[in-house]
Design goal:
binds S-adenosyl-L-homocysteine, about 25% strand, 8-stranded mixed sheet, alpha/beta, 5-stranded antiparallel sheet
Length: about 375
């Protein structure tokens, strides 16, 4: 049984022919009637997945500490645009603002917060989460709509939700993977005629037929726009997501429903659809727009380097055993390597409009 969005996509394909992965991806997440982020409550135990800010307040607190450091490294400018792309339930911004108000009251007083969010349902959620901060918070549907000025920007699990295109190695080179209708009348992957013009990663001429290569022009365009702003007005952007620091081959398109992987074509609109983020291509896009890459590393090293363990110790001090244990579990989930944990799979990358060194990145990272 196809979902309501599945039926809509099938009608579209019947009328106009197979669509590329980016078009399928965009409809699954953003279709105004049936799109995943517009309809479902994705987060938390009852949703489809748990993001780092929902695991523990420690995550947003560490990001807040990073932003205070970034602000100071840029000379503590009096007026700051604090921007978040894809804020989900607003949890991370709430945790960041608490730390910022505590550690750097001047930054708190001088910043205006801009949340870039497409889902009206999630905007309502964010309004509730951030009600303590009143008129400090503004919403923008697109990053371009955020007013200019010195910027501190953060995006956690945002880029993975921006569509990608896929190409498949065939006997006649890499050809674009499309979504069409199979013999059983259901959505199916097909191989189209379009070939790939851009550069290919190492190993692409010896890999077996069927190997997938992904490109993400829409992600690069957003990164480039962010980097242009940083270059013109100054500031730092921090991107955190699951993915790889070096471009490579492989199919990473994945759907998640009720905390389990689901075939990507099985439940359009009812499962979250994402793919791993290629940080090398984002770094290239940022550099091409004149920004400097401050560094990139895995989430575990990033959080521990910022003092996660010390902060967890302080949070647990004097608390009962079960609270301390849940703090330990959260630290493990956020920072340890291995399956089901975020420490190694997730990466953090910072880019800046000016040359700055920011802990825990080393200048050569
Ligand atoms: N950062 C949050 C939520 C991650 S889910 C967390 O870590 O919990 C992805 C978020 O990006 C959601 O808020 C979703 O509505 C938003 N989003 C997806 N595509 C978007 C787009 N093109 N522009 C702005 N927001 C988008």
């Amino acid at each position: 049984m196809a979902t309501a969005l599945g039926e809509k996509i099938k009608s579209l394909i019947e009328a106009t022919g197979p669509i590329d992965i980016a078009a399928y991806f965009a409809m699954c997440l953003g279709d105004p009637e049936h799109g995943y982020y517009l309809r479902r409550e994705p987060f938390g135990r009852a949703g489809d997945f748990v993001t780092a800010p929902e695991v523990s307040q420690l995550f947003g607190e560490m990001i807040g500490i990073f932003m205070v450091q970034a602000w100071q490294a840029c000379g503590s400018p009096p007026a700051v645009r604090l921007v978040e792309l894809g804020p989900g339930r607003g949890t991370m911004m709430a945790d960041m603002l608490r730390v910022i108000a505590h550690l750097a009251p001047q930054l708190y007083a001088g910043c205006s917060v801009h949340l870039v969010e497409t889902s009206e349902r999630l905007v309502e959620r964010q309004v509730r989460t951030l009600s303590d901060h009143g008129a400090k918070i503004a919403w923008n549907a697109r990053h371009e709509d955020v007013p200019p000025g010195f910027t501190l920007l953060v995006a956690n699990e945002f880029f993975d939700a921006i569509p990608i295109r896929q190409f498949v190695r065939t006997g006649t080179g890499f050809r674009e993977r499309l979504v069409g209708i199979g013999e059983d009348g259901e959505l199916a992957f097909l191989i189209g005629a379009a070939t790939l013009d851009g550069p290919l990663p190492p190993g692409s001429d010896t890999c077996p037929e069927g190997t997938v290569f992904e490109i993400a022009p829409a992600r690069e365009a957003i990164m480039q726009a962010v980097a242009e702003r940083l270059h013109d007005d100054g500031g730092v952007a921090l991107v955190i997501d699951y993915g790889h620091l070096v471009s490579g081959l492989g199919d990473t398109l994945q759907a998640l429903k009720d905390h389990a992987f689901d075939p990507p074509l099985a439940h359009p609109g009812e499962a979250d659809l994402t793919s791993h983020v290629d940080f090398e291509s984002l770094a290239r896009a940022a550099a091409s727009a004149g920004a400097h890459v401050v560094g990139a590393t895995c989430q575990g090293d990033f959080l521990v380097g910022l003092g996660l363990l010390e902060r967890a110790g302080a949070l647990g001090a004097g608390k009962d055993n079960s609270t301390q244990e849940s703090i330990r579990d959260a630290v493990e989930r956020l920072a340890a390597p291995g399956p089901g944990k975020m420490g190694e799979l997730f990466k953090a990358m910072a880019v800046a409009g000016q040359r700055v060194t920011l802990a825990p990145f080393r200048p050569a990272d």
